[in-house]
Amino acid sequence: MQMQRTGLEAEAGRGISALQNGDFTTARDAFDAVTRSGTGSAQAWLFLAQACDGLDDRTAALAALDQVLRIDKVNTFALLMKGDIYARGRDDRAAVSFYRMGLRAAAAIQGSPGDLAERVARAEKVVAEAEQRFQAKLQRTLTERGFDAVPPRFAEALGIASGEQPVYLQQPTSFYFPGLPQRAWYDGAAFPWVAELEAAVPDMRAEVEAVLADERGLEPYVREHSERASRGHSLLNDASWSAFHLWKEGERVEENAARVPLIMRLLELPPVPRIAGRSPMAMISILKSGTHIPPHTGMLNTRLICHVPLVVPGDCSLRVGAETREVVEGKAMIFDDSFEHEAWNNGPSARAVLLFEIWRPELDEAERAALTAMYEAVTGYDTPGDD
Q1: Burial call 303-332: b when 16+ CB within 10 Å, e when fewer
Q2: Is the same domain home to 109 and 241?
Q3: Which residues contact 225 (CB under 8 A, 6 or more apart)?
Q4: 123 and 6 in a common domain
Q5: What span, in angstroms and rounded, lies between the C-alpha atoms of 108 and 14?
Q6: Dihedrals φ, ψ of 64, to 5°?
C-alpha cells in the first residue's frame, strides 16, 4: 500500500511538472494513472482536465471536470473552466450558466489563489459580451414581430433573468398580509376619485404655496421617539424632509387643516382607512432641494400610498421596486410602500406632494374590518406615512 501511495505521489508530481512546462501529453498520462487508481482527489481530476484542455480534447476535459464537481459541487476553478470550454465552443447559454455559478463561488473566496483573478476577469467579460449578443438578438426578434417597445413588466423580467437587477418583493417591516399581488405600482386611472384630485391640483397648489411661504406647522418627517428604538435613519430630525400633517394618528390636525380647506374636502373622496389611533393619515410631504430619501420599506402591505404632486421644481423622481418614475406635477402616483423605495429632489427648490394612504383594493370588507380591529388592538400602534 505504501509503495502504491508513493508511486501515485510520484505520478502526481510528474504531472504537475509537465503542466508547468506545457507538456500536456505527459501530464495527461500522469493524472490518468492517478485518477484510474480510484483514489484521485478533486485536485487530481482538475489537473487532468487542464491537461486534456491543453490538448484541445473538449470531451475528456469536460468529463474530468464533471468528476471534480461530483466531489466538490462548488469548485470555483472547475466551474470557470467549464465556462471557458463552452465559450470557446460558442455555446453562450452553457458558458454563462457555469460562469455565473463560478463567479458566485469565487466571490466567497478570500484573496485570489493561483490565476483566479484572471479567470474571473475573463468570465465577467464573456458573460457581458454574451448578454449583449442576446439582447441584440432579442431586440431583432421583437422588432420582427411588431414590438416597437418592450412591455415594462417583460423588461423587468429580463433584468431579473440576466442578473442585472434583484427580485423586488413586498418586505413590510412589521406586518405581512399573505396572498396580495406582488405589485409595486398602481394605475391611477383604476381609481375613480383620482381624476377629481388631479383636476383640482392648481387650486391645491395655491394652498400649499401659502404653507411653504411661512413654514408654520412643518416638522421633520422622521422624528425621534423616546419610546421607540431608533433605526438610525439618515434624515432623522432633519428638516430637509418635512411634513405638514393634516390627519395624524387618526386625528385631524385642526390648525393645519384650517389652512388648506380644499385639500381637506378632497381627502374625503379616497377610501382612507378609519382606524382609531392610526388613520386617517394625510400630510403635505416636503422635500428640499438636493435631498435624497434613501432606500427603505414601509411597515405593512395592507395599504397603498398615494402621492399627488402639487409643487414640483423639476428633476424629481421616485423609485419603487425596480421602476423609477419622474414626479410630474398634477399626476398622481400610487404605490405599495412595502416594496423597497427611495426618492430624490435634484431640482432647484422644494418639492411638495399631498400624501395619504388608502386600503389595498384587493382586501374585501371582512378583511378590512378584521385588520382594523387588529390595528386598534395594538397599543401605541404607530405607522408613519411615506415619502
Answers
A1: bbbbbbbbbbbeebebbbbbbeeebebbbb
A2: no
A3: 382
A4: yes
A5: 32
A6: -65, -40
Alpha-carbon distances of 48 from 19, 20, 118, rounded to whole Å: 10, 13, 20
CATH of the domain at 210: 2.60.120.330
Length of the chain in residues, anyone?
387
Q: Are residues 203 and 347 in the same domain?
A: yes
Q: Which residue has better confidence, 238 or 204?
A: 204
- Do 217 and 123 fall into the same domain? no
Same domain, 198 and 123: no
- Strand arrangement of the beta sheet that strand 341-345 belongs to: 291-296, 341-345, 316-320, 323-326
Does residue 384 lie within any of the structural domains?
A: no
Q: What's the mean pLDDT in 325-330? A: 97
Which alpha helices (DSSP H) does the chain contain, by range?
Answer: 2-20, 24-36, 42-54, 58-71, 76-88, 92-107, 116-144, 152-162, 194-199, 201-214, 254-257, 261-266, 365-377
- Are 113 and 203 contained in the same domain? no
Using omega within 30 degrees of 0 as the cis cutoff, is the peptide bond preceding 280 cis? yes
Confidence (pTM): 0.72
Residue-range definition of the domain harbouring residue 70: 2-133
The number of folded domains in the chain is 2
Is 57 within the bounds of a domain? yes
The mean pLDDT value of the chain amounts to: 89
Residue 9 belongs to domain with CATH number = 1.25.40.10
Helix (H, G, I), strand (E, B) or coil at 229: coil
- Over residues 57-116, the pLDDT tens digits come to 999 999 999 999 999 999 999 999 999 999 999 998 899 999 999 999 998 888 777 788
CA distance 350 to 212: 9
Residue 351 has pLDDT above 50, yes or no: yes
Which cell is 48 given?
487532468
C-alpha cell at 99: 460562469
Q: What are phi and psi of 332, to 5 degrees?
A: -65, 145
Last residue of a domain, one of 133, 164, 197: 133
| Residue 270, SS3 per DSSP | coil
Strand partners, 311: 352
Percent of the chain with pLDDT over 90: 68
Tell me, yes or no, whether 385 lies in a domain. Answer: no
User: Are 189 and 50 within one domain?
Assistant: no
